[in-house]
Amino acid sequence: MSFISYLINGISLGSIYAIIALGYTMVYGIAKMLNFAHGDVIMIGAFVVLNMVTLAGVNPIIAVLISMAVCTLLGMAIEKIAYKPLRNASSPLAVLITAIGVSYFLQNLALIIFGADAKSFPNLITLPSISLADGKLVITGTTIATIITCVIILLGLTFFVNKTKQGRAMKAVSEDKGAAMLMGINVNATISLTFAIGSGLAAIAGFLLCSAYPSLTPYTGAMPGIKAFTAAVFGGIGSIPGAMIGGILLGVIEILGKAYISSQVADAIVFAVLIIVLLVKPTGLFGKNIQEKV
Amino acid sequence: MKALEVKNLCISFGGLRAVQGFDLSIEKGALYGLIGPNGAGKTTVFNLLTGVYKPDEGIVKLEGKDITGLKTTAINRAGVARTFQNIRLFKDMSVLDNVKAALTDIYKYSTFAGIFRLPSYFKTEKLMNEKATEILEVFDLDKEKNILASNLPYGKQRKLEIARALATNPKLLLLDEPAAGMNPNETIELMNTIRFVRDHFDITVLLIEHDMKLVSGICEELTVLNFGEVLTKGKTSKVLNEPAVITAYLGE
């Protein structure tokens, strides 16, 4: 029974990784860059929810919506100010280094505004726990909410990308930016929208992450950000189902590793699995083989 | 009225003068050919006309409106659409979605409406489907509209590229070697399609082609490019018989 309990916890943690990984994978797919500041947007999102609820006394649902709006604008601003001017830079390293710079900037900004000490995040998810098998298996409301949210986001995003004109523009830009421009697609707006959606989802991820692990510091987003990036690579970067499956597998591996092997080396196990997957299938689980242009 | 007027277009890459003093004047509704040996700069001209490259000098006017130096997307919106020498379809998207992607900027609904499936989403998507299907019917591709573009046979991929370009509602259509890799039967079919497209959509067509059967079959006038400069221009039958043109193609 404890195995099932660990498995559910793993899926729950993995769902959070998956939501974050979607932001990495969409931005990579469309703007062909790694947005290493994505993890820190999560942290900002969590701080917005925390302060809205504890200082302003806002209803938690409205606080999350405000946090989504703030992160959406933040993501678009980061893209516009930091990344867009470098989009045609001769080396892709320029924008990568900038992303790392933005990451540190956000962390230090949060340090100045919110301070360095860990804040305890209130439990805002009021769903009741479910008790199964005579109380041997308890699933908390947070876990249920996390998994359901993740499923809704995956379905919603899949629908959006495949069935709306904005989604088609995203796919077109991701496949061939030059041809998309020549077909009248506004590439700048499309990339901006991608950052907006990824960052809006990051706000939700921040809220869910801090609901499950209720301690918030300016560095809270860094490690989940790296793990979600790993999940995106694991699933095949650029692929939406890949990010989802990669995230969930990563969460499950991490929790089972902690439970059955050692909580100290759980992270090492996660990254070891990534290395093995990439050795066997360099493009990740759902990645496409990149054809050499001749 | 002139559909396209180009004066003194120049571009260099490093020390290489790819296109020098290029002039072109095309009447509205014409079927015009741009020919020349390999490396003459034909595709470079297309890239200059569509904003992929910014010209060092020169003016490009589309139906009297100056479009020189505009961004690619803006030039497309002004009314220039093109196909590519090496097919550049959105391969992982369906045939229908390829055409609908080109309709992105013509039909409007907000992202909000798209996410929450508001009535405007359903209404506009329906219009887009109808428009895209109508264009695909012209090219006899409507039966294959749900398969991936990469799974179409080669000849049909070329047709889909033309369909996608037409979806952007152009005034001027640029075709870069539309008959490349086609067999003689497909080429004849393509010639009919190009003529039909010009009449049906009421547009002007400028095409690059090496297949002289196609060129002499449908182009009313030609410009011959050699080493980045205009060698000669005029009526097709006259130009193709000029000794200078034959020399440029076949050597002395």
From TrEMBL, chain A:
Asked if the record carries the keyword Disulfide bond, the reply is no
Q: Which InterPro entries match?
A: ABC_transp_permease (IPR001851), BCAA_transport_permease (IPR052157)
Keyword terms, alphabetized: Amino-acid transport, Cell inner membrane, Cell membrane, Membrane, Transmembrane, Transmembrane helix, Transport
Q: Any idea where this protein resides? A: Cell membrane
| Segments traversing the membrane | 6-27, 34-55, 93-116, 136-161, 182-209, 229-253, 265-286
Signal sequence, start to end? none
Q: Which domain of life is it from?
A: Bacteria
Q: What is the membrane topology listed in the Swiss-Prot or TrEMBL record?
A: Multi-pass membrane protein
Q: What family does the Swiss-Prot or TrEMBL record give for this protein? A: Belongs to the binding-protein-dependent transport system permease family. LivHM subfamily.
Q: What is this protein called?
A: Branched-chain amino acid ABC transporter permease
UniProtKB/TrEMBL annotation, chain B:
Keywords from the named record: ATP-binding, Nucleotide-binding, Transport
Q: Indicate the segments forming the ABC transporter domain, all copies.
A: 4-252
Annotated InterPro entries: AAA+_ATPase, ABC_AA/LPS_Transport, ABC_transporter-like_ATP-bd, P-loop_NTPase
Q: Does the keyword Transport apply?
A: yes
Gene3D superfamilies found in the cross-reference section: P-loop containing nucleotide triphosphate hydrolases
Q: Kindly indicate whether the keyword Ligase belongs to this entry.
A: no
Q: Which Pfam families match?
A: ABC_tran
The Gene Ontology terms for molecular function here are: ATP binding
Q: What is this protein called?
A: ABC transporter ATP-binding protein
